[in-house]
Amino acid sequence: MGSAEGVRKRHTARPSGTDTGPKAQNGQLGNWGRAWEVDWFSLAGVVLLLCTAPFIVFFFVMACDQYQCSVSLVLLDIYNGNASPLSIWNQAPSLTWTAAKIYASWVTFQVVLYMCIPDITHKFLPGYVGGVQEGARTPAGLINKYEINGLQCWIITHVLWAANAYYFHWFSPTIIFDNWIPLLWCTNILGYSVSTFAFIKAYLFPTNPEDCKFTRNIFYDYMMGIEFNPRIGKWFDFKLFFNGRPGIVAWTLINLSYAAKQQELYGHVTNSMILVNVLQAIYVLDFFWNEAWYLKTIDICHDHFGWYLGWGDCVWLPFLYTLQGLYLVYNPIQLSTPNAWAVLVLGLVGYYIFRSANHQKDLFRRTQGKCTIWGRKPTFIECSYRSADGAVHKSKLLTSGFWGAARHLNYTGDLLGALAYCVACGAGHLLPYFYIVYMTILLLHRCIRDEHRCSNKYGEDWKRYTAAVPYRLLPRIF
Question: What is the pTM for the complete model shown?
Answer without folding.
Answer: 0.88
